[in-house]
Amino acid sequence: MGRTVAISGASGKTGYRIAEELLARGDTPRLLLRPGSVLPPSLADCDCRRLDLTDAPALDDALRGADALIIATGARPSPDLTTPLRVDAWGVQRQVDSCRRVGVNRVVLVSSLCAGRWLHPLNLFGLILVWKRLGERALETSGLDWTVIRPGGLSEREEALENEGIRWTGPDQQDSNAIPRRLVARCCLEALDTPAASGRILEVTSSPSLPPVRLEQVLAAAT
């Protein structure tokens, strides 16, 4: 098969869709999972590496030999308000550090619209957008070949996506609207395949009223 792409948070609602999209393209997803995570049947035959991301040697072993990493980890709602700090900031930093140690140069991070903004309702849940921005900065300053994808509100909708257009913008240009998780997964892979996406923060929302457009076209028009 094609390249091997590691996905952290691969059992999550966005992560498993990324893995499915990689399989559909003929690539090999390598799933980085917590020990108790459950996968959908569509991924039953994939290469799974179950580990705690705080275990640096295990993380290095899981990433070694991969062609790229897509970071789809994210803090889940929890009474513990330190969870976003540990997952979205420290957790991303650990993965970035591991990539540097084992030679995985290409990294795509799934973050969030409004990352870094202090005055936002989501920050009532452990300053989640503040810590997401810290995770972004860990990647931006890593020396790796990186792209950050900032999706809007996430939906589970799977129908009528083929002709739905993506609104691609640079950082801090969008602050509302939504996008299905399946389209976020496709945006991650499109960024992975687009050299001009390197070193960019890309905000993404979608609408059936928008015409489909390739990221490569958007970036060419912007320059």
Topology:
Blueprint: E1 4-8, H1 15-24, E2 28-33, E3 47-50, H2 56-63, E4 68-71, H3 83-102, E5 106-110, H4 128-140, E6 145-151, E7 153-155, E8 165-169, E9 178-180, H5 181-192, E10 200-207, H6 215-222
Parallel strand pairs: 1-2, 1-4, 2-3, 4-5, 5-6, 6-10, 7-9
Antiparallel strand pairs: 8-10
Describe the protein.
The protein has 223 residues and is of the alpha/beta class. The protein is built from 6 helices and 10 strands; from the N terminus they run βαββαβαβαββββαβα.
Number of domains: 1
Task: Catalogue the unreliable spans.
Answer: none
Q: What's the CATH class, please?
A: Alpha Beta
Instruction: Give the rounded overall mean pLDDT.
Output: 93
Radius of gyration, taken over Cα atoms and rounded to an integer in Å = 16 Å
Order of helices and strands: EHEEHEHEHEEEEHEH
Strand order of the largest sheet: 3-2-1-4-5-6-10-8
What is the CATH architecture descriptor?
3-Layer(aba) Sandwich
CATH third-tier fold name: Rossmann fold
Largest sheet: 8 strands, mixed
User: What structural class do you assign from the helix and strand content?
Assistant: alpha/beta
Classify the beta-strand content into a percent band: 15-25%
Number of strands: 10
The coarse silhouette is globular
| Terminal residue distance | 34 Å
User: For the record, what is the CATH homologous superfamily label?
Assistant: NAD(P)-binding Rossmann-like Domain
Count, helices: 6
